[in-house]
Design brief:
By secondary structure, this protein is an all-beta fold. The chain contains no helices and eleven strands. The structure holds FE2/S2 (inorganic) cluster (FES).
Length: 108
C-alpha cells in the first residue's frame, strides 16, 4: 500500500510502549517507536557509526544509541549529547486503523 509515499510499517497493535521495532521500508532501515501516546519513525542507523538505534532504550521521547550513549530526539532526530553531532532523519507517521504508515520519501 502506498498513499502519498506512505507505506505500511507494522500493525499498531504489534507495538509495545517504548520497545523500538526495526523495519525496512523501500530499502531504508527505520525504527518505529510508540511512546508517550504517539508513534514515531526514525532512521535506524546512528549518525556517529553504523549502529542500529532500535537496539537502544527509549526514554523521555528520545532513543539512545547503545554503543556510545548519544540520545536522539524522536521528534527532530537531533542528538542531545556527544559523541554524535549530526541528526538522524525522522519520518512522518500516519495511523490508519491498526496500520502504522510511514513515508520514507519525506523527512519531517
Ligand atoms: S555509534 Fe552511536 S553514538 Fe557512537
Amino acid at each position: 500500500m502506498s498513499v502519498e509515499g506512505f507505506v505500511r510499517a507494522c500493525a499498531l497493535s504489534e507495538l509495545e510502549e517504548d520497545m523500538p521495532r526495526r523495519v525496512e521500508l523501500d530499502g531504508v532501515p527505520v525504527s518505529v517507536v510508540s511512546t508517550e501516546g504517539e508513534v514515531f519513525a526514525i532512521h535506524d542507523i546512528c549518525s556517529h557509526a553504523n549502529v542500529s538505534l532500535s537496539e537502544g532504550e527509549v526514554d523521555d521521547c528520545t532513543i539512545e544509541c547503545w554503543l556510545h550513549g548519544s540520545r536522539f530526539d524522536l521528534r527532530s532526530g537531533k542528538p542531545s549529547g556527544l559523541p554524535a553531532t549530526r541528526p538522524v532523519p525522522v519520518y512522518p507517521v500516519k495511523i490508519e486503523g491498526d496500520d502504522v504508515l510511514v513515508s520514507v520519501t519525506q523527512e519531517s
